[in-house]
Amino acid sequence: MRTKEFNKIKPYCYVLIRLLDGKKYFGVRIQNVKKNRSPNEDFGKYYFSSSRTFKKPFKKNPEDFKFVLHSTFDTIKEALSYEHHYNKKYTVYSNLWINRAAWPAIIQTKESRRKISEANKGRELTAYQREKIIKSNKTRVYGPETLKKLSKINKGRKFPKEVGEKIAKSRIGMKLSEVHKKNIGLGVKGKKNGMFGKTHSVTARKKISLSRIGKPLTLETKEKISKSLKGRPVWNKGIKWKRKINRKEVHIYA
Asked: CATH number of the domain that 24 lies in?
């Protein structure tokens, strides 16, 4: 909900005006919520706009500028959405607004997205930029439409060996929550599972067997296997299966 509660700790939008030529900048501020500051306590004292053009001059000579606190919002999502809406509706159509420089990023067509993509090809990010991207991706929540698009893009895509190794390394020691584990279980149950109603070939079974050789099981895993096998009737498998087990046992303990 959009309000004018500038003494409450809420994300907000603002207008910053340069008195010399009347140039304006429309911006949004959300970090004041983390810092526990209201818009009145924050703007012009700790925060001096996100505009590269205005930020330093405003901090150095605040008397050369005038600012208006535009609106406050109940959530960060509402504040960001309103900023996008305002820029799309007003700022890109007038030379008075500094935000016009953000065109065509604000209103993107297929052609503008293609141009941005081409401009960024081969561009190397700094270590600081990579860290920021990693941080933001850790807390990022994707909607169902975005997830579908990502799934389409990655279907049939083969990653280089180095990328696979990096992904594997990043997942070492990662602990899944109980909810996550249950969701994975539900996701692969029944017909959703690609192997539903199928069996591995002899070659595949041999590969799986060889990959497991020399890998010791933890006590926890052994207990789980033991629990799952308890009460399972052996007689259903037939005499041949029993003989196989006996042979294995003789071979192991001989």
From this structure: 3.40.1440
CB 94 within 8 A of CB 103: no
- Report the pLDDT value the prediction gives residue 109, as an integer from 0 to 100: 62
User: Within a domain: residue 117?
Assistant: no
d(CA 209, CA 206): 5
In-domain check, residue 156: no
- What is the torsional sign of CA 45, 38, 29, 131? positive
| Helix (H/G/I), strand (E/B), else coil: 26 | strand
Position 185, amino acid: G
Q: How many domains are there within the chain? A: 1
Q: Which residue, chain included where needed, has tokens 């002899």?
A: 202
Residue 145 resides in a domain = no
- Residues 58-95 as b/e (b if ≥16 CB within 10 A, e otherwise) read beeeeeebebebbbbbeeeebbeebbeebbeeebbeee
User: What would the pLDDT profile of 147-203 be if each residue is shown by its tens digit?
Assistant: 888 888 888 888 888 888 888 888 888 888 888 888 888 877 777 677 777 788 889
What is the DSSP code (8-state) at residue 38?
-
Show the domain range for 20: 2-102
**Per the domain annotation, does 40 fall within a domain?**
yes
Determine contact, residues 85/41, Cβ cutoff 8 Å. Answer: no
